[in-house]
Every structure is written in structure tokens, then in C-alpha cells.
Amino acid sequence: MKCFVCGGDMRPFIEKSFGLTNLDVCRYVRCDGCGLVVAETLYDMPRQNWEALNRECHAAYQHTDALAVDPNWLPRLKAQANVLNDLVKHGVLDESARAVDYGAGDGKLADMCRPWLKKFDAYMARPDEGYLTAEDLTPASFDFVITCSVFEHLLGASDVEKIFALLKADGTAALHTLVCEEVPADPNWFYLQPVHATFWTNAAMKIIFRQYGFKGCAYHVDARLWLMFRDTEKFSRLKACDGWILADAFVDYWKVKPYRK
Q1: What is the longest distance spanned by two Cα atoms in the chain?
Q2: N or C: which end of the chain has fewer CB within 10 A?
Q3: Is residue 148 part of a domain?
Q4: Model confidence over 80-111: pLDDT tens digits?
Q5: In degrees to the nearest 10, what's the CA dihedral of 237, 238, 239, 244?
Q6: Which of 1, 124, 2 is closest to 66 using CA atoms?
Q7: Strand (E) or helix (H) holding 62
Q8: 218 with 245: CB under 8 angstroms?
Q9: 229: helix, strand or coil
Q10: Is the CB of residue 100 less than 8 Å from the CB of residue 117?
Q11: What is the rounded distance in angstroms from the CA atom of residue 13 to the CA atom of residue 28?
């Protein structure tokens, strides 16, 4: 298996037993080049099985106290909403622009940013709550696309392309996921969840950043959020906002273990 980011060889890394109806033991492989780790079992899984696994896990999620699983979840969402609304006030984002929270889950973040941020989710959408449909996701038609806890669910280059292809030539992307300097070789690592398929490193993200034509990057520590700009003028406006770490390349903030939850 070749790495879809850098083309390096993927070698056996670790295994983890989940014992689920749609996933028993999961095999993980690691890239020799950029350190990207993927769940080979999930990548090889037939699409109908992958969708069944997602339904199984999302059904369990919907009946779970999310704050008990991740006590930082709601405070993080509120911090992200505050940051995004502040960017609108400073003209970094345009309230009249076409913007979507891709993989919005139950839609809480978009609701906090109403009405300018729309929502889309393939598994948890509620048609009566204003979710966009797949037909609404026209390529190259969005000024702003945000994904929160989505990039770890992607299954390779085509899924990454599907998201970034939504952006206009001068569009801006926002990203919340876990990015490591090095993925731990630990089957008990908290981030090895049944539907987490791809585990990103700083080196892999730096490649993706350049590959998709981004020219400026910013990271907000409290919101755990990256912004990636193609428009250097919009990027320059961010300097008037507080709390951002800025760079011309992907901001490789998380370098020291233990990686945060």
C-alpha cells in the first residue's frame, strides 16, 4: 500500500480489537515518508460495510452523553463559534459569503454562527433543520468550508479532494482535527476509534496544505482550529485578531507528547 499523501511505502504499525458487529480487529499501517497512519482494514472495507459501521457508531453516539465522553466538546464548540463570529466582525470572513460546516453532526456549531454558516452531514442530517443536501455541494462554489472532527474519518485522496474541491479559487478552509508530530504506536491511544480511519502528522498536513494551493495558515490554540487561506489579503486581515499563530506554511503546533484530547 502506498501513502496517498506523499507516495511513501505504508508498513504494518499496530492492531486494535473493537469487537463490533461491523469491525472486529482493525489493522493500522504507517507511511515511511510523512508518518501518516491509516486504518488499512477500514480502507479495504466494502463501501456498504463502511456505511453500516458508521450507522452503528453514530447510533451509539446519539444515545451517549457527549460531555461524558469528551468534556471539552461543548466549550471547544463555543470557542470555535466565538472565533468564527469574530472573524466576520473583522472582515476576515464575509457574512454574505457562501459557507458550510461540512460533517456538521448535530449542527451545534452552525447554529451558533447562524445565519451565515450552513450545515451538511452525510449521516446525521435532519432535513427539517436546514441542512444542505449532497446536491447543494457544488464544486468551486463555497467561499468558506469548515470541518470539525472530520479529517480523521476520511478514506484517502478522493475524500480530501471532495472537501477542498468545494472551495472557490480564493476560498478559505478551517480545520479541527488532531495532528501529531508522530502518531503513537499504542493500541490504547484514545484516538483509535472505530470510524477514525486516517491519523494526520504535521509532515502530511504540510504536503496537503501546499498541494491545494493554500498560502497562509493560522492556528487558534483555545479553539483548536486551523485556518488555511488562498487569498493573501484575507490572511493579512487576520493580524488584527487576537489569539492566532500565523505562518506561510501549515502551523505545526502540536509537537510534544502526550498529544491532547
Answers
A1: 51
A2: C
A3: yes
A4: 999 999 999 999 999 999 999 999 988 999 99
A5: 180
A6: 124
A7: helix 47-62
A8: yes
A9: strand
A10: yes
A11: 5
Signed CA dihedral, 158, 164, 168, 169: sign only: negative
Task: Name residues whose C-beta falls within 8 Å of residue 209's C-beta, 6 or more positions apart in sequence.
Answer: 217, 228, 249, 250
The DSSP bridge partners found for residue 200 are 179
Question: Does the pLDDT value for residue 119 go beyond 70?
Answer: yes
Q: Residue 239 has what pLDDT?
A: 86
**How many domains does one find in the chain?**
1
Name the DSSP letter for residue 213: T
Q: How far apart are CA 119 and CA 101, in angstroms?
A: 5
- The parent domain of residue 184 ranges over 71-247
C-alpha cell at 150: 472530520
Q: What is the DSSP string of 175-207?
A: EES-EESS----TT-TT--TT--EEEEHHHHHH
CB 148 within 8 A of CB 80: yes
d(CA 101, CA 26): 29
C-alpha cell read off for 13: 504499525
Return the residue matching grid coordinates 463555543: 78
Run of H or E residues at 148: strand 142-148
In our burial notation (b when 16+ CB lie closer than 10 A, e otherwise), range 198-219 reads bbbbbbbbbbbbeebebebbbb
Do residues 6 and 31 make contact, with C-beta atoms less than 8 angstroms apart? yes
- Partners of 2 in the β-ladder: 9
What distance in Å separates the CA atoms of residue 100 and residue 125, rounded to the nearest whole number?
13
Is 0.85 surpassed by the pTM of this model?
yes
In angstroms, the CA 150 to CA 127 distance is: 20
